[in-house]
Design a protein that fits this description.
Layout: E1 8-12, H1 17-28, E2 32-37, H2 40-51, E3 57-61, H3 67-81, E4 86-89, H4 105-133, E5 136-141, H5 154-174, E6 179-186, H6 192-200, H7 204-211, H8 220-231, E7 242-245
Parallel strand pairs: 1-2, 1-4, 2-3, 4-5, 5-6, 6-7
Helix pairs in contact: 1-2, 1-8, 3-4, 4-5
Length: 252
C-alpha cells in the first residue's frame, strides 16, 4: 500500500541517518520528495540512489538556518510538484559533552541555531505553503531527551524541549485550517554520528541492554516508519503529539 501516494513531502537532513532512510521509505510509499541537506554531495548521492529505483526525488542543498535557503526549498516543492503536503524537519545536532556551567556561549548559540532556529524557519515557510492549499502535515524531530535528561547535554535537551513547544503551538494555531503538526522523539539510533560515538565507546551498547527494554538502539528506518505514519492520513486525528520511539527507554 502506498501510504503517501501523490503527496509532496520535504525531508531535511536527507544525506544520512534517519533523513536518508525517510527519503527512501517515503518515496517507496509513493511520495514526491524534496530532499534537503547542507551536504550537497551526500544529499545528491542519496537522492540519486532512490531516483535510480524509479521514484520521484529532487535534491536541493539547504542550510536550514538560512531563511533564503528555506524559502527556496519550499518554493522548489511548489514549483516541482505544485504543492506541499508534508514535511519531515529532521536536521539536528547534539552538543559536545559539557556540564552547563562549562558550556561556552558559542556552543550554546551554535546548537540552538541549528536545532531551534532551523526548525522554526522550516515550519514558518512550510505552514505558509500549506495554508495556500488548506491542508498539510508536519513532523519535527525532537528527542527522548525532551522527556528525560543527560547531565552533560543541557543545551541539546533544552533545544529538544523547545522543538516540542514549537510543535504544540503550531498544532494549536493551525488545526482548524487543516494542518497537523507532530514531533518524533527518537532514542539512540544507529546513525553515522551514533556509530562514530560507538567506535570510541564500544561498551555503550552493553548499557543499552540494561537501559532499554528492547535492549538495543533503533535502526534509522524504524524512526522513518514512525514519521511516515505521522505524515500519512493514517494519523489523521493526531496533532500536537510528541511521539516517543525509544525502545522503552522512558519506562525505566
Amino acid at each position: 500500500m502506498s501510504r503517501l501516494a501523490g503527496k509532496s513531502i520535504i525531508v531535511t537532513g536527507s544525506a544520512s541517518g534517519i533523513g536518508e532512510a525517510a527519503v527512501r521509505l517515503f518515496a517507496e510509499n509513493g511520495a514526491l520528495v524534496i530532499a534537503a541537506d547542507i551536504d550537497a554531495d551526500g544529499g545528491e548521492a542519496a537522492a540519486a540512489a532512490v531516483r535510480a529505483k524509479g521514484h520521484k526525488v529532487q535534491f536541493i542543498r539547504t542550510d536550514t538556518t538560512s531563511e533564503n535557503d528555506v524559502i527556496a526549498m519550499v518554493a522548489l516543492s511548489e514549483s516541482t510538484y505544485g504543492k506541499l503536503d508534508g514535511a519531515f524537519n529532521n536536521v539536528g545536532l547534539s552538543n559536545s559533552s559539557f556540564k552547563l556551567a562549562d558550556t561556552p556561549l558559542s556552543e550554546m548559540q551554535r546548537i540552538f541555531n541549528i536545532n531551534v532556529t532551523g526548525t522554526f524557519l522550516c515550519m514558518k515557510y512550510e505552514i505558509q505553503a500549506m495554508l495556500r492549499t488548506g491542508h498539510g502535515s508536519i513532523v519535527n524531530t525532537s528527542s527522548v531527551m525532551s522527556f528525560i535528561y543527560d547531565a552533560n547535554l543541557a543545551v541539546y535537551c533544552a533545544t529538544k524541549y523547545a522543538i516540542n513547544g514549537l510543535t504544540k503551538t503550531a498544532a494549536a494555531e493551525n488545526g482548524a485550517v487543516g494542518i497537523r503538526v507532530n514531533a518524533l522523539a527518537p532514542a539512540a539510533t544507529r546513525t553515522p554520528g551514533y556509530l562514530k560515538y560507538l567506535a570510541d565507546n564500544p561498551s555503550f551498547e552493553d548499557k543499552l541492554k540494561v537501559a532499554y527494554p528492547l535492549g538495543r538502539a533503533s535502526e534509522p528506518v524504524e524512526q522513518a516508519r514512525a514519521a511516515l505514519w505521522l505524515l500519512s492520513d493514517d494519523s489523521s486525528y493526531s496533532t500536537g503529539t510528541v511521539m516517543l520511539v525509544d525502545g522503552g527507554n522512558t519506562l525505566l
